[in-house]
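Teaching assistant here, posting this on the class forum so everyone can see the example we discussed in section. The complex has two components, and the goal was to see what a joint structure prediction looks like when all of them are supplied at once.
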Amino acid sequence: MKKLLTVFGLVMGLSIAAGPLAAHHGRGDAYDMQNPITLAGTVTEVRWANPHVVVFMDVEGDNGEVVNWGFENSNVSTLARQGYNRRTLRVGQKITAEVNPSRQGAPVGIVVAVILEDGTEIMSRRRGENPVD
Amino acid sequence: MRSHLVVWATSLLAACFLSWTGLAGAAQGPTAFDPQDLSGFWHITDGHRTISADVPPMTPAGEAQLDTSRPTRGRFAGEPLNGEHRGFVRAVRRPGDGNDPTHQCNPNGFPRLILDPEPVEFIQFEDRLVQLFQWEHTLREIWTDGRDVPSGENLDFLGPAWYGHSVGEWQGDTFVVQTVGLDDRTWMDIFGFQKSIDARFEERYRRTAVDTIEYEMTLFDPTFYTTPWVSDTKVFSRIPRDQLTYYGWFGLFGGITEATCAPMNEVDNFNSRVRDPASFGVGN
């Protein structure tokens, strides 16, 4: 039963996530929407501005090299309606970000979700929130 | 015992029904409205993102001008038309290859801004109706003081404007607006359709319910289109004031949000640090 519920949850999650992703052509196919990646690192900058909120974070690779990644979110008022503001993420905070990365290999992406250290998931696009347009 | 249960269950059902109908009535709010009062907060909830899907035949000048725009919206260039006008099927794959003027924070202009689904407030004064748009946080004035639609030398002296020069009048319960003098550097929509400096728009607003305005527009632009471009019937839906929030908090500064596109954000930061690297990679 538990396994069945897990499969059901995965299917529902994917089908809900597919809606907004498929609806947006404004970003062309700049991002790989089929293969999200997970980044763990430290917030370096939060640009809380319309029409795109962008969060930058330092991510240390396996070779010790630190790369600064940036990922797009929705706009200020849409995020605010979900309870997020410019103080939600702070410079120096450790986060994990799941993003759809640039197809060109640049360290930029479009957010799927941000996971805080306590496991809380915020700014998620999985449930159709945080639509990036 | 059984009859008591039946009475109890029936009473519960009746209470639920009355409660539900009462709530529904409360949610619907008042139904009376003045058909000549368009004031309030609205957003487009139905209608095509351009004038309509039925694009009229273009003149050679119109076709040539269409080819200058490289939109990021619509279906990708090269995909089969499937009966659509080619203007809807030519989006670039890399956003950085586009040349949408708004990506540099240039004005949306009319009619693109009113076709955008973001909220707009209509404010009626004795001598004009003002539209305050959330996107751009900009104003459009529609004069109702009896002045003429600018033409000839007067229009030449006024010069083009991003939102044109607009005059409105009530014809029965329909608010009819004429707009001329539109700057021809803006796109009319997200797809990159364009209009000439000679374009004239006629809009028709008709409040059909307390929460509904039916909206139609027609473009007269013989320089670019061989026949008038008549819109579908679009719908503005009213947004209750307490559902319009500034920075998300109900009741605090409820109203139109300042959704301004600033070059120091969009061009200097977003385009150069995110959009272009995503499109072309680093160092390209």
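For the discussion questions: DSSP finds two helices and six strands in chain A. The beta strands of chain A are 37-47, 54-60, 66-72, 94-101, 108-115, 121-122. Think about how each of these relates to the inputs above.
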